[in-house]
Structures are given as structure tokens and as C-alpha cells.
């Protein structure tokens, strides 16, 4: 009897149990969205004229951009800027450069050279003024970078001779916001100036525009000097006399 039970147990355990094979769930492919810079590039490439390009830029301006995507987007904008002949489109691009530079978590020090380079060949006074406004944004975002501030001051000084009051106003605003009282500047910077000891200095440059022919520029010069004062800088006695 014991031998018979042992045989039955052995047979039960030796049976092969077939478990029905369940089909593995199919993996669903998730298509990732193109990066902001890629999407912008595609849109601008689709534009057949300046009106289309401006429309795409206006649509893009309504969308948020993550900090990690800002530099790539700016590179695409600059690439199109150099190709664009329409002033209104370049003006919008210049405006977007300033807007993107304010993005939380993004440091605009990597685009300073690129934005400054755009000023070199720009002929539109309105676009120049907007680019200077972008540099103003960059300067206020990088208060701890003396090298950047110095470059911005020198660029503002070079463009102070522009015939358009809006450009002169932005230059003066830039000097007031990022200029440093004791920073000597090169003598060969264009525009009206006074020289002390062979160097030019921000306060002296600003004060030259107290007598500008345009009252809007005179106002901007006074506001720029006030900005220096509000930033804790000691104003020279001769400035008070003026």
C-alpha cells in the first residue's frame, strides 16, 4: 500500500503543468514634442514673407519657454535676425531677446557678445533702441559682472552720437543703470565728451547731454544722473553746478 501511494505522489509531481502564455502588453510609443528652438526654427522656415514671420513670432511670444531652452531659442532668433530685411521683424526679434533674457533660471552672460554684435550693422534707429533696451535687461540681470557692465557702458557711449533721440535716451538709461562712477573709458569713443586726466568718465559723459537739443534727451540725462545717485554713487560737485 505504501509503495502504491508513493508511486501516485511521484506521478502527481512529475506531471508537466502548462500555464497558458499571456501576451505581453504592447509598449506604447510616446512621441516627444520638438524642442522650443526646433519648433521656432520650423515655423520661421515656413514663413514665405515678413508678415508670416512676424505672425509666427507673435504666436511664439505667447508661449512660456523653460530656462534650459532659452539659449537655443535665442540662437535661432539671432540666426533669423541676420537674414531678415524687414525692420518690423527685426524689431520684434530684438524685443523677444530682452523678454527671454528675463527668464527665471537663465543667465544671459552667454549671449552678451551676440547681442552686442547685432548693433554693429543695424541701420534702423528703432531696432537699435530696442537692442539697447535688451542690453539694459542683460546688464540688470548680471549686476556682479564688472566686465559685462564695462562692455555695455562702452557700447552705450559709442551710440550716443546717434541722430535718433530714442537711441540716445536708451544709451543714457543704460549708463545710469550699469555705469560705474570711477570707470575710465577710452578717449576714442565717439560723441561729445569732456576729458579729465586723459580719460573719460560716466558722469562727465551723461552731463554733456544736459544741454542736448532734444528736451527728451535732456530729461533722460537728468534721470540717468539721478539713477547713479540712487545707486549710492557720489556725484561730482561740478555736476550740481550744472
UniProtKB/TrEMBL annotation:
Top-level taxon in the UniProt lineage: Eukaryota
Name of the protein in its database record: Integrator complex subunit 4
Gene name tied to this protein: INTS4_2
Amino acid at each position: 500500500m505504501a509503495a502504491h501511494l508513493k508511486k501516485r505522489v511521484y506521478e502527481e509531481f512529475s506531471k508537466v503543468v502548462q500555464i497558458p502564455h499571456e501576451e505581453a502588453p504592447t509598449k506604447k510609443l510616446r512621441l516627444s514634442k520638438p524642442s522650443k528652438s526646433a519648433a521656432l526654427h520650423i515655423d520661421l522656415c515656413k514663413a514665405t514673407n515678413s508678415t508670416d514671420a512676424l505672425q509666427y513670432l507673435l504666436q511664439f511670444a505667447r508661449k512660456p519657454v523653460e530656462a534650459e531652452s532659452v539659449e537655443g531659442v535665442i540662437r535661432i532668433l539671432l540666426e533669423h535676425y541676420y537674414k531678415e530685411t524687414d525692420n518690423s521683424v527685426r524689431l520684434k526679434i530684438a524685443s523677444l531677446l530682452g523678454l527671454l533674457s528675463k527668464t527665471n533660471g537663465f543667465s544671459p552672460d552667454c549671449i552678451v557678445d551676440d547681442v552686442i554684435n547685432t548693433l554693429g550693422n543695424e541701420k534702423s534707429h528703432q531696432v537699435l533702441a530696442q537692442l539697447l533696451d535688451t542690453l539694459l535687461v542683460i546688464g540688470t540681470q548680471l549686476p556682479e559682472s564688472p566686465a559685462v557692465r564695462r562692455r555695455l557702458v562702452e557700447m552705450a557711449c559709442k551710440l550716443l552720437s546717434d541722430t535718433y533721440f530714442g537711441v540716445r535716451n536708451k544709451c543714457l538709461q543704460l549708463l545710469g543703470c550699469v555705469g560705474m562712477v570711477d570707470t575710465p573709458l577710452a578717449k576714442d569713443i565717439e560723441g561729445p565728451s569732456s576729458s579729465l586726466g586723459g580719460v573719460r568718465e560716466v558722469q562727465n559723459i551723461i552731463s554733456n547731454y544736459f544741454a542736448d537739443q532734444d528736451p527728451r534727451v535732456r530729461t533722460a540725462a537728468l534721470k540717468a544722473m539721478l539713477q547713479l545717485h540712487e545707486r549710492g554713487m557720489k556725484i561730482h560737485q561740478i555736476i550740481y553746478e550744472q
